[in-house]
Amino acid sequence: MKDIAVVIPVYNGAKLLADCVKSVCAAGKRISEIIIVDDGSTDETLQVAQRIKEDDPRVKVIHTDNHGSYMARTTGMKAARADYITAIDADDRYFSGCLDMLADLLEEYDADVAIGKLIETDHYDVKPVLDDPIITISTVEQMWPRIMKWKTQEFVCYINKLYKREILPDFVEADGICQGDDVLITCQTFLNVSKIVETAAPMYLYYQNPESLTRVGFGDHDLDVIRVWDKVVEIMRERRRNLLKMAQFNRWRTDFTMITRLVLVNDKESDYKYAGELKKWRRSLKEHWKELLAPHAMPRNRELLVIGFRFFYIPVKALLRLGRKFTKKETSVILHSGDKR
Fold first, then answer.
1. Which residue, 293, 333, 296, 295, is CA-closest to 310?
2. Which residues neighbour 244 within 8 Å (Cβ) at sequence distance 6 or greater?
3. Which of 185, 190, 263, 179 is nearest to 222 (CA)?
4. pLDDT digits (tens, 9 = 90+) for 132-143
5. Most buried among 228, 273, 323, 330, by the most CB within 10 A?
């Protein structure tokens, strides 16, 4: 029977790691490797990982300096020797038996990747609904628009997938990336994929951590996503030019997203610190706003915001900030990340 490796990249996750490993152990009998990659944590993460290793011979612990979640994740994936590989964030959880289920689907349908349903939640007490799940078979050409979020708002990332190890690429180096690493990993990996099997059965509990980088103020971590899409554009220009248009669209959309994030954070210190970057993002929006308004490329409310920022930036900025001041309502910008520090 073919075996499974699970990679757990972790940074300062001492309080979460044991429960995460427990959920991994319950996810399948085929699991032969649990690779914990400590990304230079400053808490007791490494000590917790070593204690877990003492109790379970399948556990391997890799300690590195702090290079960001992308490097931690790919380091673990490169170290894996099992037939199938996946990864989980330390604050997320698997549903019982889900990895064995995906491995069975890989073999039954002779696919390169198996995908399970991801459930986003702000608590762990979620019970899966186990109806007869719909099984979908698709080619990589059908999957690329979802991966690139081209005319769809689906959240497609690496964490709810089981891959054949043989299709994993030689991942590019990208030191320091803590946000958007899921995009970079998925885009590289799917260049080697032909056939995908997907099930509607719940697999992965994606915890919306209120302290994650995507939910705190604007900072250098936000700029990681720009680096990610620069890398993806470069990769597609070299290896898959038919996907270059989608990659470039996402790069321009990221500039728009950065403007939106900075406006909604409403922090004078951030305004000052990123004033130079803001000029670049606004210049990009001025050049590419028509491309961003391609039919069905983005939701209607974002299309209106593109127009507003393009032609009426100052008043639109003032209105958005005034609205937040009076409502005190947290505005969420969709900017998914595989790293939730």
1. 293
2. 233, 236, 237
3. 179
4. 678 999 999 999
5. 228
Angstrom distance (rounded) from CA 312 to CA 305: 10
- Measure CA of the first residue to CA of the last residue in the chain; give whole Å: 36
Token pair of 259 as six digits: 């403007």
- The string of pLDDT tens digits covering residues 258-278 is 999 999 998 899 999 999 999
Percent of the chain with pLDDT over 90: 75
- Determine the longest span between alpha carbons in the chain, in angstroms: 63
**What's the pLDDT band for 150 if we cut at 50, 70, 90?**
low
Question: Residue 196 pairs with which residues in a beta bridge?
Answer: 113, 138
pTM: 0.89
Q: Quick one: which H or E segment has residue 137?
A: strand 135-139
What are the sequence ranges of the domains in the chain? 4-207, 216-327
pLDDT digits (tens, 9 = 90+) for 303-328: 999 999 999 999 999 999 988 777 65
The whole-angstrom distance between residue 251's C-alpha and the CA centroid of its chain comes to 16
Structure-token match 């290793």, residue found: 53
Taking the C-alpha atoms of residue 271 and residue 268, their distance in angstroms, rounded to an integer, is 5
